[in-house]
Specification:
Structural class of chain A: mainly alpha
CATH architecture of the largest domain in chain A: Orthogonal Bundle
Number of helices of chain A: 18
Strand content of chain B: 25-35%
Structural class of chain B: alpha/beta
Chains: A mainly alpha (about 425), B alpha/beta (about 230), C mainly alpha (about 325)
Number of strands of chain B: 10
Number of domains of chain A: 2
Oligomer: heterotrimer
Number of strands of chain A: 0
Strand order of the largest sheet of chain B: 6-7-8-3-9-10
Largest interface: A-C, 47 and 45 residues
Helix content of chain B: 25-40%
Order of helices and strands of chain A: HHHHHHHHHHHHHHHHHH
Shape of chain B: globular
CATH topology of the largest domain in chain A: ABC transporter involved in vitamin B12 uptake, BtuC
Shape of chain A: globular
Distance between the termini of chain B: 33 Å
Helix content of chain A: over 70%
Chain lengths: ~425, ~230, ~325
């Protein structure tokens, strides 16, 4: 089967599946799934450009997505009154000083010719003392800021700008951290890189969970502004009322469909532009060189290709795409909840999407994102249905039956594992294989 | 009738034949050296004889038995030992453990064989509890040969035993190899240092481009003008 | 007296918990290191293998508790541990046969194996939640303490108490025992040596007649044993929740890498380095200063280097630092 017919068939089946959900469950559910499918696809595209084209194993999806989410707060929330007066700037200065001391130590290690002992000593003293200096600078302002109406604010707040700006800014934030992370860890072997990026993304989440002055930590930031109208506003609009009557759909349902559709349109625009840019990039000499490096690092190196630089570029680009998707996700949710960032849901699920869709194929990534997210959501009811079918002859009071029904939802983890393993075994190139150019 | 022989073997990687219709053999208590320029297919022939590469045409005969299709492990049991050119020791195991691993299949005479190897290479006895990876190049080579000897092979095959070893050490190593042969083990080796190798050899095989060019006793080859000019540097 | 109180404080809040948690991490890291050195991949499913072991121990404990068979004052889980270990080994072997073996025969790259292990992680995690559910499971019975704070205070007359929970004592004793057996096996037995030889130089091991499938079998037996014991001890000591084991993988990887992947001694050292760093960095030193310094010199505040909320993050920070400065770890990554 050619790739084109594979794309046609899989995309068509996916569309039917979503429409079936619309008919059998509800259009609201179908659109919710659709929107998250798009976001998943964008994240998958970001990881695919790294893994599929350059062979970089980035297990830091969760962290970049969360940074994108953070951009929502920074851009769109109103600044907290008095927070900046309480020393918000001091916190930023302290943090920057600390980061600078770390960067300096790293440069010292990589560039200087001093003996190792002296390097260790200098950087140890430098980092430790700058850490305590930072604590000295930031402890009191943090305490003050977090004391400002802790139930409502207790954090710096943002710049009160349009929330849509947080998407590019989320990408930039992710790109900037990817630059630092890539600079220090891209030299590592693939599995070490995987573990390092996973570790760094965990550190990012811990930071967001605990630095209340920035993200309100576990108290979450609720009520993020929306790029689309609220349901309530829509319900009082004449055209909505009219459509509701014409189509005979309850006004509540219609308004929420309209909201979701507006998100869908916005997301589709982003998805299509990312896809377009990536396709251009992949087909360009830049993309060819990337694949040449992936396929044979030694000879590419011998040919004078600057592998490190190329890898860093692709790491930044891919992570920025994940950051954008993360920002979109938080916008869609309307709230930023650091606790919700789990490696299973973000990092590893996205990786399943990449592998199942087809490493190295952008169209594969999109269908991978759609398909896996669809099953991730639907396997809960599917599992429940399956169990109740299997146990249909057992009485409802049976302990085993009730236990099985209770835990049926967890079939989805097994299901995801099976999908990944079966793909790797029987179709390691994924649904839509990489095109040999 | 050789103890071990490859008869008109053809082999190579993929569809490329590196060795074609080449015959090599060694007798009991003898040393046979395979020499020739770089890329002549010496090591490839050696690997084929040991079953590390499939033989496309021809036969490998050990003690009158056709072993062409036996896997290397089975050949070890039949009395063949092999010392690869590189990665021929277990670096993080001690010297003693390296030798023990040599006798992994057959541990009946473990202590006797250990004594034999220690006697042959006294330095290994002194360093028996040291990690093999910490030893010098020459000592590693001794560990490698010692490990292969542990199975009491009838034929010991050495792939460039002098690679990466200084000339003085090499001379010592060669005299040890002669000693092993004199005690009854047939030795088939591939050598880059053709002169020194042929000096201690009963038989020499000169290979070029995967084919037998000359086959004669070591001394006659050394005396052969053509061989000297073409392969021994005058 | 103040001095003794200070020492007791350190023992009670840093040494005993550090040694306990360190042992749990070390056992986990050993499992990862052994799979890495023989099978050559980072096994992300190891946390779930630990969880599987703990789950087996829990189910068996409940079974025996319902029969009122126990070994009071020790927890029933310790009694059923051998059976739980067998179950875990069986699970590991089944997974290997059905999944990993294929990629081994294909000579797949280690990164493919890593992704495969993620599939196994998902499946196993789901299986466990399907069997016991996602909630907290309590399976501790027996006497809670080896040594109670009050008893200690009464005996010594100190202000500070020293407690040793049963789970802590059991963890330490079992870990030390298991590590001794493991090292004896690896260094003294023929099979153990052949395992090391195989991980050192696969080709030469084959030439020496070492059977690779047997080495793989032994590897999974050891891994299953270590995973089950580590998982059960962790569950006994903290609490068992399937979710936590996924998050345990990273500190365990940190321990293995900090010590030097592929080196068992390194894995043990790494476990303790991670555990003690977590405690030392998040400990509130106020009380210690209170005992060791004259009152007017004791500074204000809790004197914590980092808030306890960051406890787990410390292992990641250490991991990242080690990867950046010395990826081979403390004990240079020689294999087994």
């Amino acid at each position: 089967m050619t790739n084109l017919s594979r794309i046609k068939i899989t995309y068509f089946l996916m569309l039917i599946a979503l429409i079936a959900v619309g008919f059998f469950q509800s259009w609201n559910v179908a659109l919710t799934i659709f929107n998250l499918c798009i976001i998943s696809s964008i994240m998958t595209l970001g990881i695919n450009i790294q893994w599929g084209n350059a062979g970089i194993v980035n297990f830091g999806v969760m962290g970049f997505a969360a940074l994108g989410g953070l951009a929502n707060i920074i851009i769109s929330m109103p600044p907290t009154l008095n927070a900046w007066e309480s020393g918000g700037a001091m916190i930023i200065i302290g943090l920057i000083l600390f980061i600078l001391s770390i960067v300096f130590s790293i440069i010292l290690f990589k560039k200087s010719s001093l003996s190792n002992k002296i390097k260790y000593l200098i950087s140890f003293i430098l980092v430790i003392s700058s850490y305590f200096f930072m604590r000295f600078l930031v402890d009191i302002p943090i305490e003050k800021i977090e004391a400002i109406e802790p139930a409502k604010t207790g954090y710096l707040g943002g710049f009160n700008l349009p929330v849509l700006m947080s998407w590019p800014v989320g990408g930039l934030l992710a790109a900037f951290s990817a630059f630092i992370i890539g600079k220090i860890s891209l030299g590592l072997r693939s599995d070490y890189l995987a573990i390092a990026t996973l570790g760094i993304s965990e550190i990012i989440i811990y930071f967001l969970k605990n630095e209340d002055w920035l993200s309100r930590g576990v108290k979450n930031v609720n009520g993020l502004p929306r790029p689309v109208p609220y349901e309530i506003e829509l319900q009082s609009q004449a055209w909505v009322l009219k459509t509701s009557n014409n189509l005979n759909i309850p006004i509540n349902e219609l308004s929420s469909i309209i909201v979701k559709l507006s998100y869908s349109i916005l997301f589709c625009v982003v998805l299509l532009s990312v896809l377009f840019l990536l396709e251009v990039a992949v087909k360009s000499p830049w993309g060819r060189m990337m694949r040449a490096i992936r396929d044979n690092e030694v000879s590419a190196n011998a040919m004078g290709k600057d592998i490190k630089k190329r890898h860093l570029q692709v790491f930044i680009i891919g992570s920025a795409i994940v950051g954008v998707a993360g920002a979109m996700l938080t916008t869609l949710d309307g709230q930023f909840t650091p606790v919700s960032y789990q490696p299973l849901r973000y990092t590893f699920l996205i990786w399943i999407m990449v592998i199942v869709g087809g490493s190295g194929n952008n169209f594969g990534s999109i269908i991978g994102g759609f398909l896996i997210w669809f099953f991730w959501v639907q396997s809960e009811p599917l599992g429940l249905w399956f169990i109740s079918q299997v146990t249909t002859h057992i009485s409802d009071t049976n302990i085993i039956k009730s236990h099985l029904l209770e835990n049926a939802a967890h079939i989805r983890l097994m299901f995801m594992g099976m999908i990944l393993l079966i793909t790797l075994r029987f179709a390691p190139k994924g649904l839509i294989p990489e095109v040999k150019r | 009738m050789y103890l071990l022989s490859g008869e008109k073997i053809t082999c190579g990687y993929g569809s490329v034949d590196i060795v074609s219709e080449c015959s090599i053999g060694v007798n009991k208590g003898n040393i046979s050296s395979v020499v020739g320029p770089n890329g002549a297919g010496k090591s490839t022939a050696m690997k084929a004889l040991f079953g590390l590469l499939p033989v496309k045409k021809g036969k490998v005969i050990l003690n009158g038995e056709d072993v062409t299709n036996l896997p290397p492990q089975k050949r070890v049991l039949k009395g063949m030992g092999f010392v690869p050119q590189t990665n021929n020791i277990f670096p993080s195991l001690t010297v003693r453990e390296n030798l023990e691993m040599g006798a992994f299949i057959d541990q009946n005479d473990l202590n006797k064989m250990l004594e034999y190897v220690y006697e042959l290479f006294p330095v290994l006895k002194d360093k028996k509890n040291q990690d093999a990876g910490e030893l010098s190049g020459g000592q590693r080579q001794q560990v490698a040969v010692g490990r292969a000897l542990m199975t009491k092979p009838k034929v010991l095959m050495l792939d460039e035993p002098s690679a990466g070893v200084s000339p003085i050490i090499m001379e010592g190593l060669f005299s040890k190899i002669r000693e092993i042969a004199d005690q009854g083990t047939a030795i088939l080796m591939v050598e880059q240092n053709a002169k020194q190798a042929l000096k201690i050899s009963n038989l020499g095989f000169v290979l070029s481009q995967g084919k037998n060019l000359f086959t004669d006793s070591g001394n006659s080859l050394l005396a052969n003008k053509e061989v000297r000019q073409a392969f021994l540097g005058g | 007296m103040d001095f003794l109180n200070g020492i007791t404080l350190i023992l009670n809040y840093i040494f005993i918990p550090g040694f306990t948690y360190g042992s749990q991490l070390a056992l986990g890291a050993l499992g990862i290191t052994i799979v890495y050195s023989v099978l050559r991949f980072s096994n992300f499913a190891h946390g779930e293998f630990m969880s599987f072991g703990a789950m087996s121990a829990i189910l068996l404990s409940w079974l025996f508790m319902s029969f009122k068979i126990n070994i009071y004052p020790l927890p029933t889980a310790i009694m059923v541990l051998p059976i739980a270990i067998l179950l875990t080994i069986a699970y590991c072997l089944i997974v290997d046969r059905l999944v990993f073996k294929f990629y081994r025969q294909q000579n797949s790259k280690s990164v493919i194996n890593l992704i495969v292990s993620i599939g196994v992680m998902f499946f196993t995690g789901g299986l466990i939640r399907f069997i016991v559910g996602p909630g907290d499971k309590n399976f501790f019975d027996g006497e809670r303490f080896f040594l109670k704070a009050r008893t200690f205070k009464n005996i010594t007359g100190l202000n500070e108490g020293l407690t040793l929970k049963t789970t802590q004592g059991v963890t330490i004793i079992l870990s030390v025992l298991l590590v001794i057996i493991l090292f004896w096996f690896l260094n003294k037995t023929k099979t153990g040596k052949s395992m090391r030889a195989y991980s050192d130089n696969k080709e030469l091991a084959l030439l020496s007649g070492i059977n690779p499938e047997k080495v793989v079998l032994i590897t999974w037996i050891i891994t299953g044993t270590l995973a089950c014991v580590a998982g059960t001890l962790y569950g006994l000591d903290k609490s068992y929740k399937p979710f936590t084991y996924l998050h345990l993988v990273l500190p365990i990887f940190s321990a293995a890498i900090v010590g030097g992947v592929g080196n068992p001694i390194g894995a043990i050292i790494g476990g303790y380095v991670i555990a003690f760093s977590e405690l030392i960095i998040t400990f509130a030193y106020k009380k210690i200063f209170f005992y060791f310094l004259p009152t007017y010199l004791v500074p204000e505040g809790l004197l914590q280097i980092l808030s306890t909320d960051y406890k787990i993050a410390i292992s990641f920070v250490i991991l990242v630092i080690v990867l950046l400065i010395k990826p081979t770890g403390i004990y240079k990554g020689k294999i087994i």
